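Revision sheet: structure tokens.
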Amino acid sequence: MYRLEILLFLHIVGVVIFFGNIITAAFWKVRADINGTPSFIHQTVKNVMLADIIFTLPGLVLIIVSGILMAIQAGYSLSGFNWLTISLILFVLTGIIWLALLLPLQRKMIHYSFQSIDTGVISKEYKKASRKWANFGIIATLLPIVILYFMISKGI
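Predicted:
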């Protein structure tokens, strides 16, 4: 078995990478939208997608693998309604939002921002996709914050 300290360290590294990327990506995306330059927005939304592959995905893998191993090693129960099962449900919900909504919206934003480069004006389609991305992104960011609270407090 792995030492719990090593697993906890890997879990925290995964959380830091995950949170760092989702918050940083939102920051740069908002700044690009405020700037309003189609080519800058296009480059930014492409980089947000790239950062998801380079940072968010490995962070998620670290969180999941180390979390499962820690739960097994520590003997936590996955039955019943407790902080761990609620956290897992919220984590799955976050993943569904990311895979089913945010990633397709990011692809649309990349497509629409590229089309807007020729006209020099960001399209209504981009703005609509961007608003949806922001709204669902807020939810997908708040859910892991709730999970973080449960993980620290082991509440409920």
